[in-house]
Amino acid sequence: MRRETPLLAAIAAFLLAACDAKPKEPPPDLLKNEKRQMERAKAVEQTLDDTAKKRMEEADRQEK
Hints:
With about 60 residues, the protein is mainly α. The chain has helices at about 5-20, 30-64.
């Protein structure tokens, strides 16, 4: 019984430490900032493409 007491106390301490009553916070979205930057970059790219297309159309109209 004396040899089992420290082992049981260690197991009890481990179980009590493992059963934390606080709710866990959800993990942070590590790629959230990168996703937002990619969306911004795509929007800028679309704007540049639209502007280039308009300039090309305007240049074609002026050549005629």
